[in-house]
Write a structure and sequence with these properties.
heterodimer; A: alpha/beta; eight-stranded mixed sheet; about 35% helix; B: DNA polymerase, domain 1
Chain lengths: ~575, ~80
């Protein structure tokens, strides 16, 4: 089979916020840039981001980057690397002003400055009180950002490969990455996109959970490609959950429901939060509520046929209050839970929202592998955004820091690529086996006449993550989860699709996506089972406390042999004093 | 067939809410839509994610009445 080949200076995989930000920088430096995306760029999952971008502009009250840095270090539960956090917080204002100059329609103050609002976890003077740090465009910040960046990319002549799926990285014997092998969905044609630099910007992989707020496209394609190419995944045990997503759907029910007087019930109709948080009850913090819900479900008091969810009751508020104070909730409940919430409770479950771990990168977006206590850069490979782990979010992410992350590190990776490519005149020679792995994956799917159903194995993977590696983790359950997930991974090797057609074959795409999801799921389960402490989003019943002596370190999972390796957290910032670990109380 | 496959992929969106509604709609209706309905559906799929979701959830209304029958089907899905 002859495979066509095209050459670029840089290939960017993914057209969400980080991919578009990077591509813009590259194209404006007159590099030949290709951006691959499974969907039209402005339909990337960044479109779902509502909150805003954190930056200490101080437009309404004093603020500075060092306060922001403190909040981020504390929010990360001291797992974030302080060099990366300093870098991000110092670059925040520039990132926002750049976006403003690109035409981003930020909300404004009466005197024309960017309007800023408070957001959970963002404080003034090292935790003294809330600060107004979030810059937003109504509740459509991600949407506005994507459109702004996409338009700028068109102007800069970025070349888009829309409805293309990257299948695998090309790595030579020296370990250098020389581009990707990708498939055009419309024709099924496979092509080599050779590049001096390859940037992974494929977003999170939240679809490994059965309860997830992530769109269907969030299948961890970059993570899967990296893992198959022999690159470890970092800190994959850390997933941020939201307490109340609609069971079976994942659509979020605002925490405002509990703020307005709604409360949670178990299958016996008991208002169980009274037991876990006697004074604040249902208004306890997210992690306390999530943990209580998970405990009720684990101990057999969940509602539903399989006892798999909790009930959120709000009918006692009355239709009038619901419509006035919680606009849109009735439609959401009806549409996604098939429940009239003025009469019946909404089935809810703690729901996966954001991936803190990912492909290990330094502050210049260069992907590295841990090597004898240091970091060995993978020449030609870069990563940015939710698929990467730099690590600014550590064990938990602060709201509004994710959009900042993708702007700062999208640009930073591009700047590094420009520096690296400047000294490289020619493309390296492709290895003979450049297309072997992806073609073997496709050939297996094309030739298999029987095997496992993609839908069934995928569902088993998501159930296993949800049940055994959810928001609150139990030792026996984690151990069983590892066994089950390894069995799922084995089944994924034998998936089978009936439809062998080439044109927009969704079944084939889903089979290829499952290859990527399962790498993420195995990495997460094994990393979680091994970490014997509770830190940030990783919450274990048997090790309820943070253990800074033994566990202030990053996990690296290698696909080969499911091996784990650890590396100490970087406590030393770039220029300032280190923030020493303290109890994380708000 | 190929056209339906293309439409099915164009129902992959950035917003989970749309993924769910469109998948449900496709399961119920895609195979039996008339050519005219298919054209309307394709036109709605060209809209931005947030705008399309606002329309389906009734937070916004269409500027073009021509697409209303198809939008009503989506709203009922």
């Amino acid at each position: 089979m002859s495979i066509s080949k095209r050459q670029f200076d840089a290939v960017v995989v993914g057209a969400g916020g980080s991919g578009l930000r990077a591509a813009l920088q590259l194209a404006e430096a007159n590099l030949k840039v290709a951006v691959l995306s499974k969907v039209f760029p402005t339909r990337s999952h960044t479109v779902a981001a509502q909150g805003g971008v954190a930056a200490s502009l101080g437009n309404d009250g004093e603020d500075n980057w060092h306060w922001h840095m403190f909040d981020t270090v504390k929010g990360s539960d001291y797992l974030g690397d302080q060099d990366a956090i300093e870098f991000m917080c110092r670059k925040a204002n520039e990132a926002v002003y750049e976006l403003e100059h690109f035409g981003m329609p930020f909300d404004r103050t009466p005197d024309g400055k960017i309007y800023q609002r408070p957001f959970g976890g963002q404080t003034r003077n090292y935790g003294e009180g809330p600060v107004k740090r979030s810059c937003a465009a109504a509740d459509r910040t991600g949407h506005a950002m994507l459109h702004t960046l996409y338009q700028r990319n068109l102007r800069a002549h970025t070349q888009f490969f829309v409805e293309w799926m990257a299948l695998d990285l090309i790595r030579d014997a020296a370990g250098d990455v020389l581009g990707v092998v990708a498939m055009e969905m419309e024709t099924g044609e496979v092509m080599i996109l050779q590049a001096k630099a390859t940037l992974l910007a494929t977003g999170g992989a939240g679809r490994i959970y059965s309860a997830s707020t992530n769109a269907f496209i969030n299948t961890g394609d970059g993570l899967g490609m990296a893992a198959r190419a022999g690159i470890p995944l970092e800190d994959m045990e850390f997933w941020q959950f939201h307490p109340t997503g609609v069971a079976g759907a994942g659509v979020l029910i605002t925490e405002g429901v509990r703020g307005e007087g709604g409360f949670l019930l178990n299958k016996n109709g008991e208002r169980f939060m009274e037991r876990y948080a006697p004074t604040v009850k249902d208004l306890a913090s997210r992690d306390v509520v999530s943990r209580a819900m998970a405990t009720e479900i684990k101990e057999g008091r969940g509602a539903g046929k399989d006892g798999e969810y909790i009930l959120l009751k709000l009918d006692h508020l009355g239709a009038e209050v619901i419509d006035k104070r919680l606009p849109g909730i009735r439609e959401i409940a009806m549409k996604f839970a098939n429940v009239d919430c003025t009469k019946d409770p909404i089935p809810v479950v703690p729901t996966c929202h954001y991936q803190m771990g990912g492909i290990p990168t330094n502050i210049h977006g260069q992907v590295y592998v841990p090597d004898a206590g240091g970091e060995k850069v993978v020449h030609g490979l870069y990563a940015a955004g939710e698929c990467s782990c730099v690590s600014v979010h550590g064990a938990n992410r602060l709201g509004t820091n994710s959009l900042l992350d993708l702007l700062v590190f999208g640009k930073s990776a591009a700047e590094q690529i420009i520096r690296d490519i400047g000294s490289e005149k020619a493309q390296k020679e492709l290895p003979k086996d450049a297309t072997d792995r992806p073609l073997a994956r496709l050939a297996r799917l094309d030739s298999a006449t029987s095997g496992e159903s993609v839908a069934e194995v995928g569902a088993e993977m998501r159930r296993t993550m949800q049940l055994h590696c959810g928001v609150f983790r139990f030792p026996d359950s984690l151990a069983e989860g590892v066994r089950k997930m390894l069995a799922v991974a084995e089944r994924v090797k034998h998936t089978f699709i009936k439809d062998k057609s080439k044109v927009f074959n969704t079944a084939r795409i889903e089979a290829l996506e499952l290859d990527n999801l399962v790498e993420t799921a195995v990495a997460s389960m094994i990393s979680a089972a091994a970490r014997q402490e509770s830190r940030g989003s990783h919450d274990r019943s048997d090790f309820p406390n943070r253990d800074d002596v033994n566990w202030m370190k990053h996990t690296f999972w290698w696909k080969e042999g499911d091996r784990l390796e650890y590396k100490p957290v970087k406590l030393k910032p770039l220029t300032v004093e280190s923030f020493q670990p303290k109890a994380r109380v708000y | 067939m190929a056209d339906l496959d293309r439409i099915r992929w164009h129902c992959r969106r950035g917003l989970l809410e749309l993924d769910i509604i469109l998948e449900r709609f496709n399961r119920q209706h895609l195979a039996t839509l008339t050519p005219g309905q298919l054209e309307q559906f394709k036109e709605l799929l060209e809209l931005d994610d947030n705008h399309l979701l606002d329309l389906i959830l009734g937070r916004d209304t269409l500027e073009q009445d021509l697409l209303q029958p198809m939008l009503s089907m989506l709203q009922a899905a």
